[in-house]
Amino acid sequence: MTIAAKGTGARGGPAGLLRYRLDLKASPYLYIAPFFVLFAVFGLFPLAFTAWVSTHEWSLLSDDHVFVGFGNYTTLLTDPYFWNALGNTMSILLLATVPQLLAALLLAHLLTMRLRAQTFWRMGMLLPNVASVVAVAVIFSQLFGRDFGLINWVLESLGAGRIDWQAGSATSHIAIAVMVAWKWTGYNALIYLAAMQAVPREVYEAAHLDGASRMQQLFHVTVPMIRPTIVFTVIVSTIYGLQIFAEPQLFGGGGQNGVTGGASRQFQTLTLYLYEHGFNRGFEFGYASAVAWTMFAVIVLVALLNYLFIRRIRSAS
Amino acid sequence: MNTSRPIRAVALAAALVTAAGLTACSGGDDDGKITLSVGLFGDFGFGPLYEEYSELHPEIEFEERIAEFADHHTNLTTHLATGSGAADIEAVEVGYISQYTAQPDRFHNLLDLGADELEGQWLDWKWQQALSADGESLIGLGTDVGGMAMCYRRDLFEAAGLPVERDEVSALWAGSWVDYVAVGEQYTADTGGFFFESSGNMFRAMVEQAEEGVYDREDNLIVESNPAIGEAWDLTVDAIEAGMSNRLTAWTPEWNAGFNEGTFATIICPAWMTSYIETNAPDAAGLWDIATVPGGAGNMGGSHLVLPEQGEHAEEAYEFIEWLTAPEQQLKVFEATGNFPSTPELYEDPALTGLSKTYFNEAPVGEIFTAAAQAVQPQYQGPLQGDVLATIGQGLGRIEDGSQSPEDAWSQVLSDLESF
Hints:
The complex is a heterodimer of chains A (about 325) and B (about 425).
Chain A: H1 2-53, E1 56-58, E2 65-67, H2 71-77, H3 80-112, H4 118-130, H5 133-143, H6 150-157, H7 169-197, H8 201-209, H9 214-225, H10 227-241, H11 246-251, H12 255-260, H13 270-278, H14 285-316
Antiparallel strand pairs in A: 1-2
Helix pairs in contact in A: 3-7, 3-10, 4-7, 5-7, 7-10, 10-14, 13-14
Chain B: H1 4-25, E1 34-41, H2 47-56, E2 60-67, H3 69-82, E3 89-93, H4 94-101, H5 110-113, H6 124-129, E4 140-153, H7 154-159, H8 166-172, H9 177-191, E5 194-196, H10 199-209, H11 227-241, H12 253-261, E6 264-270, H13 271-280, E7 288-291, E8 299-306, H14 314-324, H15 327-337, E9 340-341, H16 350-353, H17 365-375, H18 385-400, H19 406-418
Parallel strand pairs in B: 1-2, 1-3, 5-6
Antiparallel strand pairs in B: 3-8, 4-6, 4-7, 4-8, 4-9
Helix pairs in contact in B: 9-11, 10-11, 10-18, 18-19
């Protein structure tokens, strides 16, 4: 291309030179433009439009859209059900993410050891992640069933008694957290594994010579070395965890309990709260958009806090 | 070699997707055939009737889409609002019909398509339910009605020392729901078992029997002021506190399993419920029987078929639903599934009244549900009927799982309803 451009430049004089310069300057932008055009159409525009809708009383069932300014946001912030949903989401996030990432770290550590059929174990890690969220949620909801669930059956035969997993706040959060952790632990383990393999072997040899055990090596050598990867997984898990929808929805058994996350809203997450207002009886898109933007703010905030938290660990070690 | 494998896999996947896309396209109208899509919640037993109709009208083909109950209605509302995505023919349950009669311009007016000559064919209240407020447009034709009865487990009644024959069982609670709760208290105290599956269902049955339900005729919510609702709530709370409820949520796997396992002794049975029990609890054949419901007659459930305005084949679709909801076809559906016809002409027909079901210990379902349907006093159904009842049901659920006292549950129900 450069050669062709030079050719025209030689023949076309100053105009050709200009075109050559333009080509040199503009082409890179043109090449990356498709992504940005798509992003603008499917990302930026909906984002901005949602913000616009969120300042209106905008129901799908009516053609009048009344401007209400920040009215939806004030209603939202004074609605106890919103705070309830936020609390539930945070609780499920903690219960799902912390054990999940610790388990993933341990699993990845085990996978770095010399094992038979290494590829089999590594691929096996990814299998739960391939299963569809809905299938996972349906099967786990049955496992956590009150009357005929496998888990209660085991608990009962151990003499521990049955648990009505759905009825309580803590129990329902645990059940949902288990679904999330089951799906994502292996995925995170593989990401950690990839990062661990990039750690130079000499560092471990040095640690080994200094008498560090396997576990000490994990926490004092591996973890600090793969810190950027940990930051990445923490942030991605946070973003995913704050948007949990299918698991609680299906756990609620469809119908009204699926929308409100149980009769007492004991496991209604933020996304379910959004769904309740946007896609249920009133189809209040304006209010639901306000929920969406508030969620966005919450996610940015929590991700930022997590980032700062992880950074502190680094400076401590 | 190694690098070419994933590429080949991707190419194969792409080829499959393309092939699937092409097959999907070939289902269109290019061969002169018209495909009518039918959106339902659950199986309405229309399968053999599509075939029969296609034999009469070879140019018509059918595509059935079945969704879960609540999702079906949510999707329909969204599709109506956005102007695309609805099926040519959609089923609407009675709890949602007023929401749609309030926006008649989103549907084809069936009075213009030929329904104006058929008014006398349906129960009068079934016809009225699909009329717009001004009476100018009719949005749907009635399929089934849900006259109520009470299904009970013979084996559990026998074990509890209660009568098992259906007339004697009906006599146990012939007085009222208070008698029913008294029998249940006795049953639970003697056996430790549950008398019914969910308190929300019992509450709903009592409300459906009342003269006025959760709305008055001006579409005002009267949950707080209607004494019938207060009484139904109090009696249901009594039943919960006596430990009679199995605390199951309708349509969940646990609920389904309960029919087979016999974890509860009675369930309110509109006609459509009988087919549900039969298909869900094949092992319990002969154990279930049908008695009358306490508190008089009432309707629970039943559907209409509507034609969304965005559908392109209005005339063909209308012709089909007119045929499908005609007495002859409704009788066939009843025989196959148990969904009870909404056309009174059949109520004199021995082919209907003489029908019994082996599964329910030869219970004369034709006779039982004919009597139930004829006695129904229609109740006005407001726009958010289904959602209001679900919200109250959740209040009862909070008492059941012990998270709230009856007083707190009631005040939360009222405050939740304020946003409606």
